Amino acid sequence: MTPVNVALADTPPSLTRAPRERLESLDVLRGFDMFMIVGFDRIVRAFCPHVDHPLCKTLQEQFTHVEWEGFRFYDLIFPLFLFIIGVAIPFSVNHRLQRGDPRVRIYAHLLLRVVVLVFLGMIVNGNLLTYDPAQFQITYSVLQMLALGYLVASVFYLNLRLRGQIVASAALLLIYYLLQNFVPVPGHEMGVLRPRANFGDWLNDLILGDLQGRWRLGWILGILTHASTAMLGVFAGQVLLSTQTEKRKVLWLWGLGLACLSAGYLWGCLLPSPLRFAIVKDRWTSTFVLFAGGWSFLLLGLFYLVVDVWRLRRWGFFFKVIGVNAIFAYMATALFWGRGWALGSVAEVFLGGLKPYVGIWHETLVALGTSLVLWLILLHLYRCRIFLKI
Q1: pLDDT digits over 44-100, tens only?
Q2: How do residues 324-362 score in pLDDT, each as one tens digit?
Q3: For residue range 127-160, what is the model confidence (pLDDT) as tens digits?
Q4: Of 339, 335, 358, 322, which Cα lies nearest the Cα of 46?
Q5: What pLDDT is stored for residue 204 in this prediction?
Q6: Residues 273-308, buried b or exposed e (16+ Cβ, 10 A)?
Q7: How far apart are CA 205 and CA 199, in angstroms?
Q8: Per-residue pLDDT, 211
Q9: Partners of 69 in the β-ladder
Q10: What are phi and psi of 342, to 5 degrees?
């Protein structure tokens, strides 16, 4: 990454000098995060039920989502990816401004990315490939929420100084909290955060009704907090873009992480009602943003320290291969894992005959093989320098 040196009139108010080279830690962390949902989670679910050990039981539990209130490792995967998207925003925007792109072109690119991500999300969860408009659904999709969070965070970064970004992000968290806790929902007690009994769910039903199918998760109001998660990543990106020493950058990331964790835990677990706001991933509450954001800051600081400061990089190559083509990896897994001729069937061709010899471990072996098939495809793309980005 070359240093940024553009006219002040063409830069966002928070623009700082960029580092000289690409942050490899960001690719490795992105790949680590994506591997958790395109391979490792399936391996855990196949392996752990057959091992009577406390560690396996804990691991199996951590790779399931909390039913409602609380937090497990698997609940971190989605917000961490959105956080990473936010980290990349200052790098991307500053690069475009440096090369002289007008803001109109930058906004056009933002909107194009949003449209493409929403379209891909409709393919995964919206029944788009049925080619039957009667079955199409306005769906809550991982890709859709990534797109909308990215859009709001990019607009904030382009138009607000750092102080304004902080105020705007805090306002989103506060507005979400106030609407969910102090706006009455017909037929339900005010301030009740339960499925179908909160303002966000009511708003979704009012606007979309049956168009949302089974995806009744209050995601319209959730755009506020998804954008806040992306903004935490934007703040981390600005730390990494700053002229501070590498050591101070790590300390800043870890300090921000501990601050967010503490604030999320205090607000979500320790304050008395009605000030308390539960940590609920399914509704992406303000406290969930802070708690997941805290872990995201800490992980980014750790990966940055190991990969870009200490330059211990060989161990991360496996994850980097995934990270540079993360959207392709997600779509390939969503569409082709275990369907007909898909990734799982390729693994079965080579490993299916081993079932009489490995017994109960056959499912684990196939999960490992399927992950390997996907990784080899990604490795081929990497070696061919093919990086499918939006």
Answers
A1: 999 999 998 999 999 999 999 999 999 999 999 999 999 999 999 999 999 999 999
A2: 999 999 998 888 865 445 777 888 888 888 888 999 999
A3: 788 888 888 877 777 888 999 999 999 999 999 9
A4: 358
A5: 84
A6: eeeebbbbbbbbbbbbbbbbbbbbbbbbbbbbbbbb
A7: 10
A8: 66
A9: 280
A10: -75, -165
For helices 142-159 and 162-182, angle between their N-to-C axes, nearest 10 degrees: 130
pLDDT, residue 121, reads 87
Answering whether pTM is above 0.70, one says: yes
∠ CA 65-268-162, nearest 5°, is 100
Tell me how far apart the alpha carbons of residues 385 and 387 are, in angstroms, rounded to a whole number. 6
CA distance 71 to 232: 19
296 in Cβ contact with 80 (< 8 Å) = yes
Q: Are 243 and 16 in contact (CB under 8 A)?
A: yes
- 126, 136 Cβ separation under 8 angstroms: yes
Cβ atoms of residues 257 and 297 within 8 Å? yes
Sign of the alpha-carbon dihedral angle for 61, 288, 76, 311: negative
Q: pLDDT over 70 for what percent of the chain?
A: 92
Considering Cα of 8, then 14, then 19, then 21, what sign does the dihedral take?
A: negative
Tokens 């600005």 belong to residue: 238
Q: Which of 146, 193, 69 is nearest to 326 (CA)?
A: 146
Asked whether residue 4 carries a pLDDT value surpassing 70, the answer given is no
**Category of 154 on φ-ψ map: left (φ > 0), alpha (ψ -120 to 50) or beta:** alpha
CB-based contact 144:82 (threshold 8 Å): no
User: Beta partners for 239?
Assistant: none
Q: Return the bridge partners of 280, or none.
A: 69
If you search the block for the tokens 């390729």, which residue do you land on? 346
Residue 280 per-residue DSSP state = B
Q: What is the DSSP string of 14-83?
A: T--PPPSS--HHHHHHHHHHHHIIIIIHHHHHHHGGG---HHHHHHHHHTS--SSBS--GGGGHHHHHHH
Instruction: For the chain, give every domain's residue range.
Output: 8-341
pLDDT score recorded for residue 247: 95
